[in-house]
User: Which sequence fits this backbone?
C-alpha cells in the first residue's frame, strides 16, 4: 500500500540555524525526501540562514554532506535538483547583517513563507523583531519553533508573550516531533476509527495504562543542555504528556486543529498533582564500556535525572480511579516505546479458581517494530481440563501494510503540515503552559527537598524502586525489549 502524496503549493522555507545540528540531522533530510516525493514544486525554495559566512555554493555543500550523513543520499539528479532550489544568507540575528538580502530574496514572489527558528529560544525575540521590522511576515507566513519551549511555566509564558507579540497564534507552529510519528497518529486512528475499543475505554473496564519510552542512548554531546533539563523537562513534560493526552482524551468532534487541541488541553488540566512517593528518579552509572551520567554531563555531583517513572491520575468522569504509569529514561536495556492498556479481569471466572488471573491487554508498540498486539485469553490446547492461557493477536504494521508502506519521518509530515497550514499536530500556547503548570511543582519539590536520583546500571530497566512503584499496587511494568 503506497502512501498518497497530496500536492502542496510552492513555498519558501527559511531555516534560521540552517547549518546547525537539527537542520543537518532532521530538517534537510526530511525536506529532501519530500522533494523526491514531488512535494517541493518548482519555484519552492529552501533558504538557509546562519552566522557562518558561506556562499550559496558553500551552503549547498553543507547540505550535500548532511544528506550523505543523515539522508542516505550520495548523489544523483534528484540531489542536484534539490540543491538547485537552495539559497543561503549570512545573517546576524542580533544585528543588521543579511536582513536586506533575505527580504530581497523573499520579495521575488508571494509564496507561503515559513520561518523555522532552529535556534535557541534566546534568539526568538531578535528574529521576530527583525522579520517584522523588514516586513517579511504577512498573513501567509508561519513561524516554526522547537522544544524546549521554556524550562518552567514562567519562561514558557514569557516565550509565548514574545511570539504572540509579533505573530498570531494561528501562525505559530510549536513542534513536538512525537506528534508527527506515524504510530502516534495511529493512536487516534485506533481509538476513534474502531467501534471495538471506545465503549471499553474508561475506568470501568481499564485497570491501568502504562506508557514507556525507553532509550539506549546516553546524553551524547548534549551534556550541558541535559544537565539543566533532565528527563522530566526533556521528555515527560512534552513527549510523554502528548502520548497521555492522545490515549486519555475525549473524542474530538472533528480531526481539526482546535477540536483536537481543546480535548488534549482538558486532559492536562485534569491531571492531579503527583505525590512525591509516586515518583522515582534515576541516574545511570557506568557499565558495559560506557561512562556514567555524571561523567557525561561533566558534573560529579549532578542531581539531574536521566530516568523518571511516575504514577498519575486524571480527575475526570472517564478516568477517575485509573492509574497511569509513565516512565522514560536513557541508557536503558532497549530502545522500546510502547503504550499498554491493561483491562480489568473478567468479573467472575466460570472456570473455577484454579485457572489463574487473565485479562486483556492492548499494546501499541510505537517504536521500533511498530504494531498493535491484543492479548486474549483462550483454552490451552490438549487434555487436562480447562486451562487458560493468554495469547497475542499480533499485528505488525510492516506486515499488515506490505513492503511498500512508507512511514515518513516525523519531520517530513510536520514540515508539510506547516506549509499546508494545518496546526493539528502542533502544540498550542495554552497546552504548553498547562503542561508546565503540572510539571513545575514536581520539580520544585525535588529542589526543595534536595532530592538525589537513584543510581541504576546502564542498560538495565532503571532503578529497582521503579519496579516497586508498580509492585506495591500489585502491578508490573511490561518488559523493555532489548
Ligand atoms: C528529543 C529529546 O526531544 O527526543 C531527546 O530531547 C530524545 O533527549 C529524543 O533522545 C527521542 O526522540 P526519538 O524520536 O528518537 O524517540
Assistant:
Amino acid at each position: 500500500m503506497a502512501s498518497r502524496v497530496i500536492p502542496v503549493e510552492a513555498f519558501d522555507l527559511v531555516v534560521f540555524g540552517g547549518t546547525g545540528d537539527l537542520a543537518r540531522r532532521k530538517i534537510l533530510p526530511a525536506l529532501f525526501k519530500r522533494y523526491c516525493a514531488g512535494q517541493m514544486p518548482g519555484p519552492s525554495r529552501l533558504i538557509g540562514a546562519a552566522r557562518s559566512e558561506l556562499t550559496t555554493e558553500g551552503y549547498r555543500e553543507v547540505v550535500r554532506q548532511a544528506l550523505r550523513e543523515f539522508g542516505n543520499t550520495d548523489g544523483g539528479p534528484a540531489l542536484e535538483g534539490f540543491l538547485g532550489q537552495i539559497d543561503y544568507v549570512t545573517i546576524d540575528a542580533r544585528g543588521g547583517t543579511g536582513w536586506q538580502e533575505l527580504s530581497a530574496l523573499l520579495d521575488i514572489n508571494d509564496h507561503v513563507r515559513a520561518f523555522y527558528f532552529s535556534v535557541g529560544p534566546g534568539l526568538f525575540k531578535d528574529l521576530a523583531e527583525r522579520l517584522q521590522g523588514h516586513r517579511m511576515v504577512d498573513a501567509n507566513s508561519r513561524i516554526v519553533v522547537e522544544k524546549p519551549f521554556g524550562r518552567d511555566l514562567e519562561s514558557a509564558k514569557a516565550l509565548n508573550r514574545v511570539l504572540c507579540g509579533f505573530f498570531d497564534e494561528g501562525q505559530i507552529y510549536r513542534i513536538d516531533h512525537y506528534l508527527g510519528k506515524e504510530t502516534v497518529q495511529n493512536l487516534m486512528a485506533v481509538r476513534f476509527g474502531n467501534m471495538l475499543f471506545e465503549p471499553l475505554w474508561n475506568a470501568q473496564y481499564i485497570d491501568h495504562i502504562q506508557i514507556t519510552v525507553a532509550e539506549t542512548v546516553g546524553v551524547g554531546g548534549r551534556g550541558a543542555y541535559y544537565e539543566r533539563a533532565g528527563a522530566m523537562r526533556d521528555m515527560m513534560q512534552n513527549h510523554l504528556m502528548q502520548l497521555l493526552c492522545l490515549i486519555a482524551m475525549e473524542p474530538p468532534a472533528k480531526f481539526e486543529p482546535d477540536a483536537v487541541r481543546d480535548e488534549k488541553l482538558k486532559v492536562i488540566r485534569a491531571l492531579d498533582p503527583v505525590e512525591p512517593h509516586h515518583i522515582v528518579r534515576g541516574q545511570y552509572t557506568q557499565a558495559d564500556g560506557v561512562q556514567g551520567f555524571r561523567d557525561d554531563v561533566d558534573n560529579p555531583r549532578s542531581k539531574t535525572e536521566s530516568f523518571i517513572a511516575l504514577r498519575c491520575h486524571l480527575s475526570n468522569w472517564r478516568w477517575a480511579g485509573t492509574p497511569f504509569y509513565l516512565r522514560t529514561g536513557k541508557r536503558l536495556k532497549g530502545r522500546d516505546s510502547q503504550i499498554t492498556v491493561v483491562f480489568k479481569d473478567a468479573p467472575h471466572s466460570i472456570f473455577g479458581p484454579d485457572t489463574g488471573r487473565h485479562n486483556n491487554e492492548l499494546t501499541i508498540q510505537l517504536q521500533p517494530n511498530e504494531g498493535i498486539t491484543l492479548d486474549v485469553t483462550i483454552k490451552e490446547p490438549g487434555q487436562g481440563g480447562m486451562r487458560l492461557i493468554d495469547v497475542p493477536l499480533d499485528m505488525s504494521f510492516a506486515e499488515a501494510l506490505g513492503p511498500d508502506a512508507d512511514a515518513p519521518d516525523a519531520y517530513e509530515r510536520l514540515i508539510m503540515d506547516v506549509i499546508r497550514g494545518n496546526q493539528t499536530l502542533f502544540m498550542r500556547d495554552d497546552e504548553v503552559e498547562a503542561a508546565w503548570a503540572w510539571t513545575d511543582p514536581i520539580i520544585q519539590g525535588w529542589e526543595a527537598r534536595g532530592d538525589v536520583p537513584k543510581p541504576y546500571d546502564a542498560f538495565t530497566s532503571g532503578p529497582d524502586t521503579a519496579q516497586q512503584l508498580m509492585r506495591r499496587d500489585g502491578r508490573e511494568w511490561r518488559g523493555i525489549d532489548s
User: Anything to note?
Assistant: Residues 11-146 form a domain with the Rossmann fold fold (CATH 3.40.50.720). The chain has a mean pLDDT of 93. Residues 215, 234 surround 6-O-phosphono-beta-D-glucopyranose (CB under 6 Å). The chain has two domains: 11-146, 179-408+428-471.
